[in-house]
Write a structure and sequence with these properties.
The complex is a heterotrimer. Chain A has helices at residues 3-13, 28-37, 51-63, 74-90, 119-122, 138-155, 165-169, 237-252, 255-258, 279-292, 310-319, 333-340, 360-371; strands at 16-21, 44-47, 67-72, 94-100, 131-133, 158-164, 221-223, 261-264, 271-275, 297-302, 304-306, 322-327, 346-351. Chain A is an alpha/beta fold. Chain A folds into two domains: 3-181, Rossmann fold (3-Layer(aba) Sandwich); 262-371, Rossmann fold, CATH 3.40.50.920. The chains are: A alpha/beta, B alpha+beta, C alpha/beta.
C-alpha cells in the first residue's frame, strides 16, 4: 500500500477517533482514506474549513478525551504554528502528519523536499519541545504513526510524522499485525479526587502531569497563558523559568529513551553517511554497496529527528573521521550533527533542495571523494 | 427607622449587601434603581471610589436590578427576615 | 463588607459567586468599572442555574480579549483558546463529548474578524454550540481599536479620522450562514438575555446570542458617550424591537439595532449527523 494509506492504518490501530484535515498535496490521500475508513470504526472525519480549524478541532477533542490526527504539508504547518505552540503549552496530545513538499511558498506541490525539519521544532513562538519521527517506507509509516500516537499520549505533546512526497506516495508491502500484538499507550489519568487535584502538578519523574478529560468533573483550567500549577496566569520570571524548563525538558531530557536511530557498520568505519526519510533509501543502498566492496563506510539513519539524540551522534563522531549528510534541503539536520559530532569529526553537508532525491551513485561518489 | 404599614399587614422588606472590596464605583446600581433606594456614600473605599449605600430601603421592592446590573458582583439583595436594621451586615 | 449600622452579622454572598473561580486574577475580576462583560458573566451563570444544569458538564470556551477571558472565571472546565479559534476547539470538544453544554464567549472583533471563517462554518454546520457574542464595537483589551462592527464615523484608537468601513450586521450574517437560533439584546435587557441564553442552550444547534455592551473605558470615552450609566441609556436608545422595526422606514432605522428573538429553526445538528455517518458506515 501507499505510504499515506499506511499512515491511516497506523492511526486506526492506535485508536484515532477524530481526523480533521484540509486537502493539500501530497497529503490529500490521508484525508480521503480517513473519510472512508474512520467512520467504519466509529470515528469521525471532519474536513476543516482550513488548517487552523482542523488542528483546533483535534485539540478540542483531545482535551475531551479523544485521540486525534491531522495531515498536511509544509504550507499547512505554517498556518498551524500558533496552535502547535498552544498544544505545547497546554500539553494536549496530538499527531500531525507533514507530507513534506518542495518550497518555499507554494513551491512544487507534487515534488518532495525535506524542508520542514526545523519548522516543526521551532516554528511557533516561545520555547517548547515536540517529537518528530521520519519514516523511510510505507511499513515504517505504519509503525511510526502508532508510535507517534503513543509518544503523544506519554509526553502530552504534539508529535509530528515527517513524511515526504516520496515516502507518502511510495507503494510497498505493509504487514499489519493482529490488534492484540500492537502496543497502544493511553494517557495517564489521575487517582486524585477533583477537590484535591492540582492540574499541572507533576509527581512523576517523566515531568508529565496526569490528564483527566473535560467533562470528567475536574474543573480543568485549560489556557495557554503562562500559568502556575493550579492554572492561574502569572507574569513572574520564577514561574516562567520553571514552566518553560519543564516543558522543554520533559522531552529533551528523555532524548535517549525517545529517539531512535539505526546504525550499521560503525566499528570499522572512517566515514559515516547520516540520513533520514526518503534519502535514507538511497544512502542505505550506497553504503551497502560500498561495504560489499570493503570500504570503511557506516550508515546512520535518524528515525527520530526530534528530540535529537545528541549523545549517540556525538558517539558516532568519535568513531569516524568524516560524516557525510545528504539532505533534500539546504542543509538543516546536518547542523545538529555539526553541533554534536562536529567536535570529533569533520561534517559535510550534501544539500539538494528538493524535487530530486540523491541517487545511490551520487552518494557513493561523494563518499569516494572523501575517502581519497 | 422602619415604618410599619398602618393596616398592620407585614410588608416584605429587603436588605442591601455591598462588598466594598469589589465595588469599582460605576454607579449603575444607583442610577437604575427604580425606587431611588440606593445612593452613593460620601466615604471612599480602598480603591478610591464612593460605594453605594442604602438610602431609602423601605422603598426597595426586591426587583434586584442592582444585583443583576452590577458588573462586579458587589451588591446583593436579601429578604429581611424580621430584623430591625435597614442593612444586612456581612 | 459594608457596615453602615450596627446589628448581627449575617453574611450574604452575591448569587453569582458560587460559580466563580477564586484563583483567577482581579478583585473580583479584571474588567473595568461598569463593563458590560461583567454583567454578561452574571447573566450566563444565571441561565445555567435556572436551567438546573450539571455544572461539571458545562464547558466555557473563549479566545482572547476581554470577552474571551470570561471562561477563565468559570469554576468548572474552561477552555481558553487562541484569538478567533474558540469555535474550532469547541467543535472538537463537542464531537468527543456530545453530552457537554458548550458556551462560547467571543467579542465582536474576535468573532468576526480573525474568527470570521470559523464563525460562518460553525453556523453552516449547525454545531450544537452557544455563541454569546458581546458586541462593544471595538477591541477593548488591546486599547480600543476598531472592529468589523464599529459604526461608521466612530472614533477609535485606529480610526482617528473616523471609521470609514461599513460594519457587519452579525445577526443577518448568522442567518445566512445557517444558525438555528439568533437573538440580539443589550446589557440593559438582563432578563431577556438570560432567557435567550437558556433558549440557545435548549436549541439543539448553533445558537448566536449577540449582546450589545458598553465599553466605557475605550469606545465610550473616545466617542464621548459618558460612563457606564450613560452608555447603558445610549444602548437602550439605540435598540428597536423587531415588531417596531417592521413599522419603521430605512431612514428611521439608520444607526439603530434590531433586538429580540430574531430567528429560530430546526436543522440536523453537526455532532449528530457526523456520528450517523459512522453508524451507516459500519453497517
Amino acid at each position: 500500500m501507499q505510504g499515506n494509506e499506511a499512515c491511516v492504518e497506523g492511526a486506526l490501530a492506535a485508536g484515532c477517533m477524530l481526523f480533521a484535515g484540509y486537502p493539500i498535496t501530497p497529503a490529500t490521500e490521508v484525508s480521503e482514506i480517513m473519510a472512508r475508513r474512520l467512520p467504519r470504526v466509529g470515528g469521525i472525519y471532519v474536513q476543516g474549513e482550513d488548517e487552523l480549524a482542523s488542528l483546533g478541532m483535534i485539540l478540542g477533542a483531545s482535551a475531551a478525551g479523544w485521540k486525534g490526527m491531522t495531515a498536511t504539508s509544509g504550507n499547512g504547518i505554517c498556518l498551524m504554528q500558533e496552535e502547535i505552540g498552544y498544544a505545547a503549552m497546554t500539553e494536549i496530545p496530538c499527531v500531525i502528519v507533514d507530507a513534506q513538499r518542495a518550497g518555499p511558498g507554494t513551491g512544487i506541490a507534487t515534488k518532495s523536499m525535506q524542508g520542514d525539519v526545523y519548522q516543526v521544532r521551532y516554528g511557533s513562538n516561545g520555547d517548547y519541545s515536540i517529537i518528530a519521527l521520519a519514516p523511510s517506507s510505507p511499513q515504517e509509516t505504519f509503525d511510526l504513526t502508532i508510535e507517534a500516537f503513543n509518544l503523544a499520549e506519554m509526553y502530552r505533546t504534539p508529535v509530528f510524522l515527517l513524511s515526504d512526497e516520496i515516502v507518502a506516495h511510495m507503494r510497498e508491502r505493509v504487514i499489519i499485525p493482529e490488534p492484540e500484538k500492537i502496543k497502544v499507550v493511553e494517557r495517564r489519568k489521575t487517582e486524585v479526587p477533583p477537590a484535591e487535584f492540582v492540574p499541572f502538578r507533576v509527581e512523576t519523574p517523566d515531568g508529565v502531569p496526569p490528564m483527566p478529560s473535560i467533562g470528567d468533573g475536574y474543573a480543568l483550567p485549560i489556557s495557554s497563558f503562562a500559568r502556575t500549577d493550579t492554572g492561574r496566569p502569572v507574569t513572574d520570571f520564577k514561574n516562567q523559568d520553571r514552566l518553560v524548563q519543564r516543558l522543554w525538558n520533559k522531552v529533551e531530557k528523555h532524548a535517549d529513551s525517545i529517539a531512535r536511530i539505526e546504525v550499521e557498520g560503525l566499528e570499522d568505519a572512517r566515514v559515516a553517511v547520516v540520513s533520514y526519510g526518503s534519502v535514507a533509501r538511497a544512502a542505505d543502498e550506497a553504503v551497502r554497496n560500498m561495504r560489499s566492496q570493503g570500504k570503511p563506510v557506516a550508515s546512520v539513519r535518524l528515525i527520530t529527528l526530534w528530540p535529537f539524540p545528541d549523545e549517540r551522534i556525538r558517539e558516532v563522531g568519535r568513531h569516524v573521521k568524516t560524516i557525510l549528510f545528504p539532505e533534500m534541503n539546504m542543509g538543516k539536520m546536518v547542523r545538529e550533527v555539526e553541533r554534536t559530532a562536529g567536535k570529533h569529526a569533520e561534517v559535510f553537508s550534501f544539500p539538494k533542495p528538493g524535487v530530486d532525491m540523491h541517487t545511490p551513485a551520487e552518494i557513493e561518489q561523494a563518499v569516494m571523494r572523501i575517502l581519497e | 427607622m422602619i415604618l410599619s404599614k398602618s393596616l398592620g399587614a407585614q410588608v416584605k422588606r429587603f436588605k442591601l449587601f455591598v462588598n466594598e472590596e469589589y465595588c469599582k464605583g460605576c454607579r449603575i446600581c444607583v442610577h437604575f434603581c427604580p425606587r431611588d433606594a440606593i445612593r452613593l456614600s460620601d466615604d471612599f473605599n480602598s480603591k478610591g471610589v464612593n460605594v453605594p449605600v442604602p438610602s431609602n430601603m423601605e422603598k426597595c421592592t426586591g426587583c434586584r436590578i442592582c444585583e443583576f446590573y452590577c458588573p462586579d458582583f458587589a451588591i446583593a439583595i436579601a429578604e429581611d427576615e424580621g430584623s430591625n436594621c435597614e442593612v444586612c451586615l456581612g | 463588607m459594608s457596615t453602615n449600622s450596627k446589628g448581627p452579622a449575617k453574611k450574604i454572598e452575591h448569587p453569582v459567586l458560587k460559580h466563580f473561580r477564586d484563583d483567577s486574577p482581579g478583585t473580583p475580576h479584571l474588567w473595568c468599572a461598569g463593563c458590560g462583560v461583567g454583567q454578561v458573566w452574571h447573566y450566563t451563570t444565571r441561565a445555567i442555574e435556572e436551567l438546573g444544569l450539571d455544572e461539571d458538564k458545562v464547558l466555557w470556551v473563549g479566545g482572547s480579549g476581554c470577552t474571551g477571558r470570561m471562561c477563565t472565571y468559570w469554576h468548572k472546565d474552561f477552555f481558553h483558546t487562541l484569538h478567533g479559534r474558540a469555535l474550532s476547539f469547541a467543535t472538537g470538544a463537542k464531537l468527543a463529548r456530545p453530552e457537554l453544554t458548550v458556551l462560547v464567549h467571543s467579542g465582536d472583533g474576535e468573532c468576526v474578524a480573525i474568527g470570521g471563517n470559523h464563525l460562518i462554518h460553525a453556523a453552516r454546520r449547525n454545531v450544537d454550540l452557544n455563541l454569546i457574542a458581546i458586541n462593544n464595537f471595538n477591541y477593548g483589551m488591546t486599547g480600543g481599536q476598531f472592529s468589523p462592527t464599529t459604526p461608521i464615523n466612530a472614533n477609535t484608537a485606529t480610526t482617528p479620522y473616523g471609521n470609514r468601513e461599513a460594519p457587519f450586521d452579525l445577526t443577518t450574517l448568522m442567518r445566512e450562514a445557517g444558525a438555528t437560533y439568533i437573538a440580539r439584546w443589550t446589557t440593559v435587557h438582563f432578563r431577556q438575555v438570560i432567557n435567550a441564553i437558556k433558549k440557545g442552550i435548549q436549541n439543539k444547534g448553533f445558537s448566536y446570542i449577540e449582546i450589545l455592551a458598553q465599553c466605557p473605558t475605550q469606545y465610550g470615552r473616545r466617542n464621548k458617550l459618558g460612563g457606564a450609566v450613560e452608555m447603558m441609556e445610549w444602548l437602550k436608545a439605540l435598540s428597536v424591537t423587531k415588531e417596531n422595526a417592521e413599522k419603521m422606514s430605512p431612514e428611521e432605522l439608520k444607526g439603530k439595532f434590531v433586538i429580540g428573538e430574531l430567528f429560530s429553526a430546526t436543522k440536523p445538528e453537526f455532532s449528530e449527523y457526523m456520528r450517523s455517518i459512522a453508524a451507516e458506515a459500519s453497517k
